Amino acid sequence: MRRLPPRTFAALATAGLLALAGCGTETGGPGGPSAAGDTTRTIRAQKVMQLTRTHEETGMTLLEGPAFRPDGGLFLVDVTAPEGRPKVMRVDVRRKTVRSVHTDGRGAYTSAQFSPYDGRLYLTDYAHGEIVSLAPDGGDPRTFFSGEVDGARMNPDDIAFDKAGHLYVSDSRGLSEGTEHGRVVRVDRDGGKATVLADGLAATNGISFDEAYRGLWISELTQNRISYLRLGAGGDTGSELGTGGDTASRHTAIRVDGGIAQTDSIAVDADGNLYQGLHGRPALFVYDRYGEHLATVEVPARAEGLDSATNVAITPGGTKAYMTVSGPAGGYLYTFHALGKGTRQSNGG
């Protein structure tokens, strides 16, 4: 596959790709007040290890999409890794080791998720509008989906799987133009059919089912808001047979006071709490299903050169959480104790 030149990454940055897209507990302290004021709990995350350094070829590093395999291995992606550097990595969090799983000369992968249907690792290639999959060991790369959906190519960012293995994709279309053309697209698990469930979104980024699989939480990067999309019995926004792009069941659920930071990926724990990643601040905001700001997860104030906490994975069945944090200082993995236990909806995306 051809090498992706630095100018391509510069173009992607201009287009807004790089704006997308990481243990102790105390209250207050040197991290500063949270967006909800001094009454909001502050959780101090602790560094696990450094995974990447700034790439000379692309001028940055950006970690995303942490996801646990059933065997306990933690997989994640580096969005800006050049050819020859790890684009998909596996981390042993107990031994604090990392190894490369996959690289190529084309993809700019913004998320990773394991399918409950076939067990393969699915990646979104934002730059080329594709979804690809790998064997659990990183081999056997396949293009799962490419092409247009309702006349427009996707800019796929994050993925959520339903219980049957169908994909729900945040399509950040329109980001580079500053237009609200973002979508939520459902792709059947065999890749044969893609349906727009919602459109008119402001740079759709994070996407995750709620704890009961009744609806989707969706973050909109350029409006700093989290919307809720209720699904029908057939996994769409209408009746069991579906109505395609019906958006009547969508509403703005949470307005995020992020300041210069923007809403990135979303994870949901077993209690229904939302973990909202931030691009532009190395922190996560935690909300309950009613929009109450419960906590802010911060890296220590002494951790310089970090400016984004894009995503989080909570250990399945446990509360140990791992977030991807990046900036000029490199790409790091930090850990903290989540408010609820981990499930599939708190595992990458």
CATH fold description: Neuraminidase
Q: Structural class given helices, strands, pairing?
A: mainly beta
Outline, from the CA principal axes?
globular
Q: What is the CATH first-level class name?
A: Mainly Beta
The radius of gyration computed from the alpha-carbon positions, rounded to a whole number of angstroms, is: 18 Å
Helical residue percent?
A: under 10%
| Cα end-to-end separation | 26 Å
- What is the CATH architecture term? 6 Propeller
Low-pLDDT stretches are 1-11, 20-37, 239-248
> Overall mean pLDDT score?
86
Secondary-structure element order, N to C: HEEEEEEEEEEEEEEEEEEEEEEEEEEEE
| Secondary structure tally, helices | 1
Give the CATH superfamily.
Answer: TolB, C-terminal domain
Please provide the count of β strands: 28
Percent strand equals: 35-45%
Taken together, the total number of domains comes to 1
Largest sheet: 10 strands, mixed
Structural notes for this entry:
This protein is mostly beta strands and 349 residues long. Helix content is 3%, strand content 45%. The chain has one domain: TolB, C-terminal domain (Neuraminidase, 6 Propeller), CATH 2.120.10.30. It is built from one helix and 28 strands. Strands 1, 2, 3, 22, 23, 24, 25, 26, 27 and 28 form a ten-stranded mixed β-sheet that branches. Strands 4-5-6-7 form a four-stranded antiparallel β-sheet, with no helix packed on it. The longest helix has 10 residues, at 6-15. It is globular and about 45 Å long. The two termini are 26 Å apart.
